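go over this:
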Amino acid sequence: MSCFGRPSIVPLAVALSVAGVSVGASPADDSKSATIAKELVQALDAAKLTAIATQDAANPGVFVAALYIPGTQLLVVSAKYSAPPLLVNSITAKDYQAVYVDLQSASVRGSKIFVMDQGADGLLPKLSGDSSAADSFDEGDKSVSFDGDWKKAKVSEADYNKAFADADDRYAKLLSMLLAQAKKSKAGS
């Protein structure tokens, strides 16, 4: 009890923090990709770009591309491509949208990752208050929609949270590559 005859909220806050529950935290606080997505969107806006693409330096033959719909969505695809010189030429020519289209339509089967980032604000583990569409992460034949409803997805909360953490980590890496390219592209303008 507090000195005013009411129960103190301090023990509750301590218990929640020990349990790993954030008091007053937003879903974006749990997202590694949120900060990088914000930086990428700012770089794309500054360069007046609606698409960006790059080669994955760590994985030969793999490329990453994004289509940016200002204020609405960031659509990111990563995949292996059977004719890498064609995409390298498109990147050199700054024809990033062509790279995006080629990766979406003609990537090596089973190699594609596709992320729909609603709001272009990074992956969020559940719907935010101002969005009715969930972020999603597709890899191969697996697709996860991050609407916060793991019961509807018929998985445990722990499995849902692990799927989100894994997807968010992968997405943050893809965004980092695209951000580096956007900065390089702007510097070369």
